[in-house]
Amino acid sequence: MASERLILLPTDGSATAEAAARFAEDIALAERSRVLVLGIAEPAIVMGIDQKTVTEPLVEATRDIVAGEAARLRQAGVECEELVIVAATPHAGILQVAEERGATLIVMGTHGRSALARAILGSVADRVVRHSNIPVVLVPRATDSQ
């Protein structure tokens, strides 16, 4: 029986994304929620080369990351889906997918940057938190000691 709750799990294969995936797994198992593993490939532009030629390998690499995480979640007993999109602004892609798919929670990793670095650089996670209409859980890398 499928649950109506959907956890959106954006991933890029980083250590923080893996920590977020384990957190999402725990929530999904406890609440019998589904997980949508989302990978976002940013379009690549190289002068003199067709954009698709440059972007397609990025999409394939992202697809491999998403498939690997989804397989791990399924093995743990979590019902999940996979989705890879191309988006020039990853935070907007995450928010759009969350809205379109009716996600009830977004769980994602953060690099735990300092407030000053965030103010100067910004981050995908920060932008998602600021603009999301649903709860967002940011998970630091397990080895972060900050």
Query: What is the H-and-E element order?
Result: EHEHEHEHHE
The percentage helix is 40-55%
By CATH, the topology of the largest domain is: Rossmann fold
CATH architecture of the largest domain: 3-Layer(aba) Sandwich
Count of domain modules: 2
The number of helical segments is: 5
Whole-angstrom Rg:
15 Å
Question: Low-confidence parts, pLDDT < 50 over ≥5 residues?
Answer: none
The coarse silhouette is globular
- Number of strand elements: 5
CATH superfamily placement of the largest domain? HUPs
Cross-sheet strand order for the largest sheet:
3-2-1-4-5
Give the structure's gist in a few sentences.
The protein has 146 residues and is of the alpha/beta class.
Structure notes:
The chain is of the alpha/beta class. It has five helices and five strands; from the N terminus they run βαβαβαβααβ. α2 (51-75) links the parallel β2 and β3 (80-86). α3 packs across α5. The protein is globular and about 50 Å long. It starts with 5 loop residues before the first strand and ends in a 6-residue tail after the last strand. The mean pLDDT is 86.
Q: Which tags fit this structure?
A:
146 residues, alpha/beta, Rossmann fold, 5-stranded parallel beta sheet, 5 strands
